[in-house]
Amino acid sequence: MGATASVIQTTSFPFCHSMNSNEENFFYKSATILLFLTALAKLYSAGGNARLLHIQDQLLHLGYRPVMILVALIEITVAAFLLMSRSDLKRSLALLWLSSNFLAYRLGNYFLGIHTCPCLGRLADRLPLPHGSAHIILLVLVLWWFAGSLGSFWRLWASERWGRLALAIRSGLRKPTAAAR
């Protein structure tokens, strides 16, 4: 078992850039902080009385207020998981799942002809940014999470698979002993 773990840990997937531990820690810590901040922005906006909060989301067929509260709670849960989990594979899967859902939501809205995302509620309008910039920044952020977590997942999953293959090849190449004959 020890030899298997050693091979799995030291074998990397060919042609796949892998983040070093500092880059990976930065990636997950920054995702954690940003998820907490966006969740707080959603909860702050959901507590207001903007007209948008009384409108139904055309994709999910729920009011924007409960959607924002639910998504904020999911973001907090994923952020806490990213903070507490020591498994890079599980962290990559959690962030990949969340970012995939965000991208699917945005894609669904695009196909419905909806070009605004109430991701930050009215708080986005209060930021000192040009109109629409906050939505572009959030899209880039979600794409970064998706690409980073997908790359991390691929590297970790493939590393394990290549390690098992290398171990099987190594054990198959060993000469049989006299006792085995």
**Rg for CA atoms:** 22 Å
| Share of β-strand residues | under 5%
**Quantity of strands, as a count:** 0
Shape: elongated
Total discrete domains: 1
| Structural class determined from secondary elements | mainly alpha
Query: For the terminal residues, how far apart are their CA atoms?
Result: 24 Å
Which sequence of SSEs, written as H and E, runs from N to C?
A: HHHHHH
Number of helices: 6
Helix content: 55-70%
Largest sheet: none
Mean pLDDT across every amino acid position? 79
Low-confidence stretches: 1-16
Secondary structure topology:
Layout: H1 2-10, H2 21-46, H3 64-84, H4 88-111, H5 123-126, H6 133-173
Helix pairs in contact: 1-6, 2-3, 3-4, 4-6
Description:
The protein is mainly α. The chain has one domain (19-173). The chain is built from six helices and no strands. The protein has helices spanning 2-10, 21-46, 64-84, 88-111, 123-126, 133-173. The protein is elongated. The two termini are 24 Å apart.
State the gist of this model.
The chain is an all-alpha fold.
Key descriptive features of the protein:
disordered N terminus, elongated, mainly alpha, 181 residues, 0% strand
